[in-house]
């Protein structure tokens, strides 16, 4: 939502009287259906009128007819009457709260039903992607605000009306002149407070709108996080978020300003009547007001009238304005949902957003493979206090022969690490320390080791998304550090454990890294990876895909097929088959190994290591590389892992 639209919306909704007119029919119908509850509530509240009346009368008569007249017993008797009237307030409050539930709970239930009906209607009318994200706020935060505000408002209005009636009747019965002194400052403070109600409601409405807009932006940004990273539009989304935060802060400041005015009105109404009564004592005494009547008047003010007024003004200023705004947003006329400024990053979230998907694919980079940042503590494979040292020998000495594939020494290594060290902090123990590794073109390498030892860190270093603390990482003879994402995506594809699938067609997802792929290429990829059952279930390659409706294994198959289609010569699988069953995993890895290029797999099962040409074992103190049988002989850790995978002791073959 642009600032112009926001300001227009503010102008349309700032008039609090409009909200009152819209809500009045609903309120009348709601209260008319609960007239019995209102009658019982009024009967309980009448007791508060008597209580307020008796407290002041008891003090006045105790002084005039008792202590000043020399009759201590009568004075104590009247004080006892005042005390009993105060104590009787407890069962009255209990009865009031028992009846209050008959109003608040039906209100809450009705608001929840209305919010759900509106949200479902909006989603049904808008189709896929047409969900109302503000509905979460209405169903949770705003409904509870309305319920609590309504309960507080009923309590305070009821208390003020019946308590003020008792106190004013008591002042009139003591002496009419007391009302002449007390009512003007009381009315002044109350009037000043009422003047602030409408702008206070407008400020509250703007604060709620800003909160909803900020929550909507956060939800959209979270859903499109990978796209934001892939397109480089994260800074724009961050700037928009900062603008919304500033709008919310500005609305909060305006609200605080009107709250200060309300506090001033509260001070006028709460302190001026007492001060006026003190200043008017000589005049009142001259008109025949007794000392007991003066003490009774002070009792009415301090014990009954002013506390009730203070509570009323607090409730109307806070709960009342909140209730008006929230009810208008829940059951008032439906307003267009705030829509954030659309960026390229948000487009793939729409089903059928083909043009944007192709624009994204033109970068030919997985969303997780943006520019390589410096490692942060706790990222990657985890800060492990162990070292993976030693050069990794090629099997067969100087003339390696890997898995039946003769290696041409004149060809550039597909992957080469030269004394690579990585640590997540200046004083942290390195995760990898002086690691040397050479992977030939066309080779299939499996990386194994205990959890957290640095396997994922190694794949991210090779992918160029982590910068080594020392040493050099080369892919196809080119150093990856500092290379732009578009160049990196032409060299390698990294498929992480959490596969990325976006809203769009299945074809869009598979051609994400190769927009020009032909239908024959897609058919071959789908056939090689065993994706046909999913294709048929969805309705073909051009059928829309909704990521939330796919299982973890299906998302991984889509990502693996996308990697098969990619023209990049190096594939990095970081436990990218962990959600597949063993048969599907074997088929996927064998298909990717047959694909022209090099394959590096972080093994999830023993079968992955057995299928590879070589196995690299990272164990925290040493690094061993060779064929499955060679590593089984040389690495105790690998023998332990093999026994764990097989469910028993490892056997040398």
TrEMBL record:
* Ranges of compositional bias, category Basic and acidic residues: 334-350
Q: Which SUPFAM superfamilies match?
A: ABC transporter transmembrane region, P-loop containing nucleoside triphosphate hydrolases
What is the first-listed, main subcellular location in coarse terms? membrane
Sorted alphabetically, which keywords does the UniProt record give?
ATP-binding, Membrane, Nucleotide-binding, Transmembrane, Transmembrane helix
Q: Could you tell me which residues belong to the region Disordered?
A: 334-355
Q: Where is the ABC transmembrane type-1 domain?
A: 41-307
ABC transporter domain sequence ranges: 415-644
Q: Which InterPro entries match?
A: AAA+_ATPase (IPR003593), ABC1_TM_dom (IPR011527), ABC1_TM_sf (IPR036640), ABC_transporter-like_ATP-bd (IPR003439), P-loop_NTPase (IPR027417), Type_1_exporter (IPR039421)
Name the chain's protein: ABC transporter ATP-binding protein
Residue ranges annotated as transmembrane are 76-97, 150-172, 178-197, 263-284
Query: Is Transmembrane helix there in the keyword field?
Result: yes
Q: Name one Pfam family in it.
A: ABC_tran
Question: What are the top taxonomic ranks of the organism?
Answer: Bacteria, Bacillati, Actinomycetota, Actinomycetes, Kitasatosporales
Topology class, membrane: Multi-pass membrane protein
